[in-house]
Design goal:
The chain is α/β, with parallel strands linked by helices. The chain is built from 5 helices and 12 strands. β2, α2 and β3 form a beta-alpha-beta unit.
């Protein structure tokens, strides 16, 4: 073999190897997406979205919210996903794998949309280190029941399961930190939608600044008694059908569908917490609901003085989520597909 042939062979192998590594879906940076903020009041602040629910398409709705916060308001947004261990694609039915949780170390806000996760102890520690640090939380829909330890009941974090009965920590993460765990559907699922009404006395709260016409195909979640210092912000009126102009169901009361509270973790510093039981993929099509979420993010970080009279909540890229349903997510999507 001539020297020229040897050199040519070397470069052929090298280029093939680089191409292979460049296309593999499992390199670290490919397992989540970072959206750098543009100019705006959020510049210099970092929001980390922690997603993973099998039913309500948080893997589509939360990247859409992150883009709004980054492009219109200047926040740096990192979106973490449940990732399939075999091929590196987004798989919300992989309940034990959310890579990138170390991003919480530099987060100014955690937005969580989880359901029945059973994460390794090291990852749970990252989440709870954040929670106990006194930094703010915004939580959606099934985050009232984010963890469900079935295979590893001996984990030190098993008590954070949604139906934990340990005295003094009943209801696990949802009830103790957010204010409530999963109880039941109150509006009939997929048959009765929700109109959001600003709670009496909260009309001038910065979270509802510019917010009106909240509606979504979510059904209202039933609650027991909200735990801790919860203050309802939005009440859910059960409608008889799945359209915004359907009449209310007069036989059903109005349960809170959004509230605020504080949580004093081990640091002793009280964090601001906003929780909403809305979050069906279709709810994000409501301008009022998107504005409520954007305002909640500002408020959580103590930026309520910078909330605009009517925050820009226009979608940055087209938003047309797959219909909700258990494990009916769009297959083959990678985190990088959500890059701006």
């Amino acid at each position: 073999m001539t020297r020229a042939n040897r050199v040519a062979g070397f470069w052929a192998i090298a280029l093939t190897t680089m191409a292979w590594f460049g296309s593999t879906p499992c390199s670290a940076d490919d397992r989540w997406v970072v959206l750098e903020g543009k100019d705006g009041p959020g510049k210099g602040k970092h929001i980390v979205f922690v997603t993973g629910d099998e039913e309500y398409r948080s893997e589509e709705s939360m990247p859409a919210m992150a883009k709004i916060l980054a492009a219109h308001h200047g926040f740096k947004c990192t979106v973490l996903f449940a990732i399939d261990k075999t091929d590196g694609t987004i798989n919300p039915c992989q309940v034990d794998n959310i890579p990138g949780l170390e991003a919480l170390e530099s987060a100014d806000l955690m937005v969580m949309f989880l359901r029945f996760r059973e994460l390794p102890d090291a990852d749970m520690k990252r989440i709870l280190d954040y929670v106990n640090s006194g930094r703010p939380i915004v939580a959606l829909r099934t985050s009232t029941h984010p963890f469900n330890y079935v295979k590893h009941k001996d984990s030190p974090y098993a008590k954070y399961s949604w139906r934990n009965q340990e005295k003094g920590f009943e209801g696990g993460f949802g009830r103790q930190i957010l204010g409530e765990t999963w109880v039941n559907h109150y509006g009939v699922h997929q048959k009765e939608s929700t109109r959001g009404l600003i709670a009496p006395g909260m009309e001038n709260h910065p979270i509802v600044r510019g917010v009106k016409d909240i509606w979504g195909p979510s059904d209202v979640y039933q609650l027991t008694t909200l735990h801790g210092d919860c203050q309802p912000v939005v009440l859910g009126q059960v409608l008889k059908g799945m359209n915004p102009d359907d009449a209310p169901n007069p036989e059903k009361m109005q349960y809170p569908v959004a509230w605020i509270k504080t949580f004093a973790g081990t640091s002793g510093k009280a964090s601001r917490v906003f929780t909403t039981t809305m979050g069906h993929a279709g709810d994000l099509k409501s301008e009022g609901f998107r504005r409520l979420l954007v305002n909640a993010c500002f408020w959580g970080m103590g930026l309520e003085g910078k909330i605009p009279a009517a925050a820009n909540v226009e979608f940055v890229t087209p938003y047309d989520p797959v219909p909700i349903g258990y494990c009916r997510y769009k297959k083959g999507v990678k985190p990088a597909d959500h890059k701006l």
